[in-house]
Amino acid sequence: MPMASSDKPTRQTGKNRAFRQSLGHAVDGLKALYRYERNFRKHLLVGSLAIVAGVILRLTLNEWLWLTLAIFLVLIAETLNTIVEAVVDLVVGQTYHDLAKRAKDVAAGGVLLAALFAVVVGCLVMLPALSRWF
Ligand SMILES: Nc1ncnc2c1ncn2[C@@H]1O[C@H](COP(=O)(O)OP(=O)(O)OP(=O)(O)O)[C@@H](O)[C@H]1O
């Protein structure tokens, strides 16, 4: 999905000079993810619900580690997918290209792998926690 090219009104193309400036651009990246990527918002919502469930079910430290790893892996995979989509669109625009399709499909496959891992972790963590709760 093409993103707007005017996200950065400053139009900076050179290196960042300060940590605060780098951090600002990283936060802009997260805002763009949230604003333009529907799947990122969905994964963020599911991850947040899993955290609420984890608090209610009083997960152990070990369970929290696995759960947060799974949540962040999905969000990072979605970030990489968005990068690939943006770069492919930048290079080929609306033109069909087999390599563009491969790049986008592989990036989407990476998100699917991370999501499957999250489902496995969710089941392995939540089921024992649920059985402790009842
Ligand atoms: N330039 C292109 N050339 C060939 N195939 C393309 C091209 N652009 C997109 N596609 C195909 O269309 C699919 C959807 O591409 P699109 O850029 O719309 O992703 P998207 O729907 O935003 O993905 P996501 O669901 O991850 O947000 C890609 O996975 C790919 O198979």
From TrEMBL:
It comes from the Bacteria. Pfam families: DAGK_prokar. GO terms for molecular function: kinase activity. It is found in: Cell membrane. Keywords: ATP-binding, Cell membrane, Kinase, Lipid biosynthesis, Lipid metabolism, Membrane, Nucleotide-binding, Phospholipid biosynthesis, Phospholipid metabolism, Transferase, Transmembrane, Transmembrane helix. Gene3D superfamilies: 1.10.287.3610. It is a multi-pass membrane protein. The chain crosses the membrane at residues 44-61, 67-93, 105-130. InterPro entries: DAGK, DAGK_sf, UDPK. Belongs to the bacterial diacylglycerol kinase family. PANTHER family: DIACYLGLYCEROL KINASE. This is UDP kinase. It comes from Levilactobacillus zymae. The gene is dgk.
